[in-house]
Amino acid sequence: MLSIYNTLTRKKEEFIPISPDEVRMYVCGPTVYDYFHIGNARSFIMADVLRKYLEYKGYNVKYIMNLTDIDDRIIKKSIEEKIEAKLVAEKYTKAFFDDIEKLKVKQADVYPKATDHVQEIVDFIKQLEEKSFAYNVDGNVFYDVSKFHDYGKLSGKKLVELEAGARVDVNEEKKNPLDFALWKKAKEGEPFWESPWGKGRPGWHIECSAMSMKYLGESFDIHAGGIDHVPVHHTNEIAQSEAATGKTWVKYWMHAEFLIMDKGKMSKSKGGFMTLQSLIDSGLDPLDYRYFCLGGHYRSQLTFSWESMEQAKASRKALAEKIVDLREKAGDAILPKPSELAPAAAERLARFDESLADDLSVPRALAELWQLVRDPQIPPAHALSAAIEMDSVLGLGLASARRQESSLDAALVGEIERLVGERAAAKKAKDWASADAIRVALKGMGIALEDGPTGTIWKKL
User: Fold this and answer.
1) pLDDT at 264 (0 to 100)
2) Which domains does the chain have, with CATH numbers?
């Protein structure tokens, strides 16, 4: 039985999807005005592990992540860089996809962009306006929070408490300081779309409601994101979504806690944020950071330090070495299916499953993986098979683990990995000529390939 902590109810609950065999899941993606920082990456990794665990348990997961590609910050960056807002969004969207691939975050089924769904957003706002939850002031349309009696339920605060503690810019157009923009009137030189209220563009919160409902329906199972979204963004999403439909919008809310630096939580608004590339430039592999994130429970704050990253790097390297040792000892043995595992391996796999079923307790699950690969009583082929099963959730790329070749520079290693990937794609497409040509090319570079039941590994000749 899977139990997860539901931010809405503030307790662990048994996970029971709306449809028995399907899970519909929405995750807040990036606003593509800059590279995402490693604090953002933590929430992406948490959602990825959850998605992969649900798939491991046999669910068909429909996974949607939005891309906010029109926003005040994108417009500001376009002015700073003297290029169109569209080009800013395209640049950082590509960077986002490059980075999540390096982190082995599985692609979403759909990445809806706000600019591709303006008509759906306009129609959604019209619904709210017809139901008197929205009001137009000279082309700016606001949501009236006083009309939604459950406003603030996600954070556990009532409207009067939120009003008392509100720190928002004074806007005389609003009836209430907490009212938020659904549609923003276009300013001179800004991108705009036509609407019943004049030229303008969508507000931030409304896009998630409109796009999630388009792809997942009026009610769905899981909404995940960072804990920083609880008091405003997710609170406003609930208000507008449930006002429009009169239904519960999301059944389970899951939030990843902050990544903490020496001076507090990581934030772009405070400046000096750290990107994935900054870790790579320091000699770390993106999967070292993924391993680091797996070492902390998603609902606990995680403190970043260079020392902890070096520990994660060393641990991941040691784990990869264990996997290579098991592969060499297993030789040509056929890896058993999970149902055919030796009792000790099956027990570790069961405990791994139990750990994840308890509110995604990944650190405990990771400990079970270590116990598995260290147990000399478990036959190597069985330990290897169980480890690869576990990694289908953890996402550390253990099936292709190899001994690190310290004499090769990072650029060459990257080129080798690229060619190995291209060869795998060629084999999948049954393009044997291309696959053979890549093998010959790698041999010319002094690299030998070994195809096995867990995939292809490479080593120096």
Assistant:
1) 56
2) 3-270 (3.40.50.620), 305-400 (1.20.120.1910), 410-460 (no CATH)
